[in-house]
Amino acid sequence: MNITPFRQRRLSLLARMGEAGGGLAVIPTAPERVRNRDTTYPYRADSYFHYLTGFPEPEAVLVLITGRSNDGPQSILFCRDKDIDKEIWDGFRHGPDAARETFGCDAAFSIKEFDSKLAELLADQPALWFSIGHDVGWDARIAAALNAVRAQARAGKSAPAVIHDVRAVLDEMRLVKDAHEIALMQKAATIACTAHRRAMRFAAPGRFEYEVEAEFLHEFRRQGSQYPAYPPIVAGGANACILHYVENNRPLQSGDLLLIDAGCEIDGYASDITRTFPVAGRFSGPQADIYELVLDAQAAAIATIRPGVTFLDPHTAAVRVLAQGMLDLKLLEGSLDGVIESGAFKRFYMHRTGHWLGMDVHDAGTYRSGPDDHGWRVLAPGMMLTVEPGCYIRPADDVPVAFHNIGVRIEDDALVTQSGCEIITAAAPKTIADIEALMADDHSG
Ligand code: GLY
Ligand code: MN
Ligand code: MN
C-alpha cells in the first residue's frame, strides 16, 4: 500500500489546524453495524478516517496533534490488539505495532487505552477538532474526556476552550481531489462504464430488472470493486419516473425504455453513472425526442464546466435547454423565461443537475462559497461533479399521450481541469446511434 497520499493529507490537515490556532483532532472510523441477530453489514470505514489513514479495520481512531514549538505534529492511531483466537474466526488484525509501521503513524496504541489516553492528550490543548453531532455515542465519549481534564483543574490542567467541527476543514480538502483520488475515481468510472455496456447487450424483453442488476454486480465484483457505490436503480418503463426506484423486480417490456443509475466503489471511491436505453434496442420517435432533449441539456451543462464558473452554472444551462424543449414538445405552455421563473419545468425535471462526487456518492463539500458569501461555489481544477439532467413524464390529461411514462436521465462524472472538464465516464455510450449500434451487435465490446 502506498501510504504517501494518506500521510500528506494528515500533514495538510495538521497545517490547516495550525493556521487556525492548533490543537488536537479526534477522527473515529465507522462502527460495524448489525444487520440481523449476529450478522453484520459488509464493513466500510468512515470516509474521513479512510481519507487520512487508509486503515481498514473497525474500532479505530486517529488522533492528530499540531504540537508546540518543541514537539512537532503527531499522528497517533488507536486500533484493536492482535488476537490470534479472534483472527482464526474473523481474519487478520494488524495490532498497534504493525499498524504504526504499515500506515506510517508516529505512534499507535490499543483501542482499549483510548479513553484514558485521550484525557491525557487533551490536557492543555488550545482546541479540540471533532465531528460534533455526528454520533451521540461519540459525543458522550468526547464530553467524558473533556470532563476528565476539567476535573484536574486544581492540578493545573486545562481543557480546550474551543471546539471546532473538523469536518469543515476536511470537507474543503476533500473537495479538490489529489492524483491518488483521481486515479481511483477513473478506475471506478471505467469499471462502471464496462458494466453499463454489458447491461445494454444483456437487456431484452422478458428479462427482469434484477437480472440486469445482477450483470452490474457481477461486473463490479469481478473487476475488484468491493460494493456498488449506492443501491443500483434499474427502472423499466414507468418505473423510470420514480427517482429512487430500487425494487428492481419488474419484467422488461418490449416498447419501454430502461433507466439504469449504477456506479461502483473501489478502494473507497465512487462512480455514479446513468444511462437510458430502449429494452428492444431501438428508440421510438417520442422516446428519441425526450432522449435527445436530455442529451442536449447535458451537453449544454458540460460545456459550462471550467475553473471560474460556479456550481450552479451547469444546472442553469441544463434547465434552459430542458425548459425550451418542454415548450417545443407541448409539455408546457408559455414563454421560456416564464416557465423557468415560475418553476413550471420542475413538473418534469425536479432535481438538480449534479453533486460533488468522491468517496461518498453525494460527496463532502459545501455548495456555497462560505458563511460570508452567499454565492455558489466557484469551480476549481480537481473538483469532481456529476452532470445528470433528466426528464420524467407521468401520465396526465394535459400531457401528450405519446410521452406518458417516459423517464430519461443521462449522468456522467466530470473532473474540472485547468481549461474545462474531462468526462471520466465517456466510455459508456450515450448517443442514440452508439446505443443502437451496441445493442444491435451483442458480440461487440
Ligand atoms: N445515484 C445517485 C445520484 O445520481 O445522485
Ligand atoms: Mn448522481
Ligand atoms: Mn446516479
Can you describe this structure?
- α1 (4-19) packs across α2, α5 packs across α6 (136-150) and α10 (285-304) runs antiparallel to α11 (312-328).
- The protein is elongated.
- The chain is built from 13 helices and 21 strands.
- It has 445 residues and is of the alpha+beta class.
- It has helices at residues 4-19, 47-53, 84-90, 95-103, 114-122, 136-150, 166-175, 179-202, 209-222, 285-304, 312-328, 336-342, 432-440; strands spanning 24-28, 34-36, 39-40, 61-65, 74-79, 107-110, 127-130, 162-165, 227-228, 233-236, 257-261, 264-266, 269-270, 274-278, 368-370, 373-376, 384-387, 390-392, 407-409, 412-416, 421-423.
- 40% of the residues are buried.
- The strands form seven sheets. A six-stranded mixed β-sheet has the order 6-5-4-1-7-8, with helices on both faces.
- The protein folds into two domains: 4-174, 3-Layer(aba) Sandwich (Creatine Amidinohydrolase, Chain A, domain 1); 176-443, Creatinase/methionine aminopeptidase superfamily (Creatine Amidinohydrolase).
- The model has no long low-confidence stretch (mean pLDDT 96).
- One manganese (II) ion is lined by residues 272, 355, 386, 388, 411.
- Residues 261, 272, 274, 411 line the site of one manganese (II) ion.
